[in-house]
Amino acid sequence: MMDMRTDRVPRIRHILWKSDRVSAYFTKQLKSWTDIHPGWTYVLWRDADLDRFVAKHYTGALQKFRSLKENIMRVDMARYLILHHFGGVYADLDYTLVHSLDPFLKYTAVVPIETEAFALLYFGMSTWPPDLLGNPAFMFSVPQHPFFFFCILQLMANPATDVFTFAGPLGLSAMLKRYATDRPAVSDLSDVVFVPVSRAFSSYANNSLRSSTSEYKGGIMDALNRQCDAVRKSTVSPPELKSYCKDVYNLDPITDRRELAFAIHDSNKARSSYDKRGSPQFYKDSVSIRTVVPNVRMAREII
């Protein structure tokens, strides 16, 4: 039978983790991917692989990469380089896949956004809708996409020393805006970045932030409530924000739960989980990733 697929994004998932051992906690998330996409290629990038990869393929970015003070910032930068070089899908290890990603493979680049609540948190509640807050935890690309090359150049020049404004959500948001400004008219649609609705890759159980653990959400919810204090007192705030600020946990006034969620990002964690300062469940009872994903490829084999 003739294959009628029009995929552009390669069917590769890049997984970045500290070693080739993953905790039992992650086995369910990993299995959700292999159940839905058994024929995909899964590539594991250990911390030790990243410097070798950058040194071999992106020598111009190596000094910047090595100068970053926090390991998580190097990991964040590496995902843009990997997607530019190989293409495919980058997704944080703690994403559970719930629907096939096939509908997105026809695009040349896909950059999801965070939930509107987090966009309001970082950009303020003066207007509705809020600016888009990029979600670098889940991205798609064809090899050599100009947006990801643009991101590499931006990151090399970015003096930021904190995770969020370097290659994290705020940094990604700034790069999306600059890319749209610098390339307002594209002659080739392959240069375009597709941005799906927030719920597609930033969904929460029952459309509520109550599904998060108190450790992860405490400061975030306090900050949202502080911003909502002004909205509650205002006579001119948009009705969507008035409704949302009645209960900042409930996303229904600002996020349409009818939109399909393709993947769910684990919210039962501490924000420092990658560097072992939080979320101990991420490190307990570790097993070789090959016991969960038998056909996994090690990045060191393809660098």
TrEMBL record:
GO molecular function terms noted in the UniProt entry: mannosyltransferase activity
What are the entry keywords? Transferase
Show the GO cellular component annotation of the record.
Answer: membrane
Which GO BP terms, alphabetically? Answer: mannosyl-inositol phosphorylceramide biosynthetic process
Domain of life where this protein originates: Eukaryota
- Which InterPro entries does the entry mention? Glycosyltransferase_domain, GlycoTrfase_DXD_sugar-bd_CS, Nucleotide-diphossugar_trans
Spell out the PANTHER family in the cross-references: INOSITOL PHOSPHOCERAMIDE MANNOSYLTRANSFERASE 1, MANNOSYL PHOSPHORYLINOSITOL CERAMIDE SYNTHASE
| Name of the protein in its database record | Glycosyl transferase
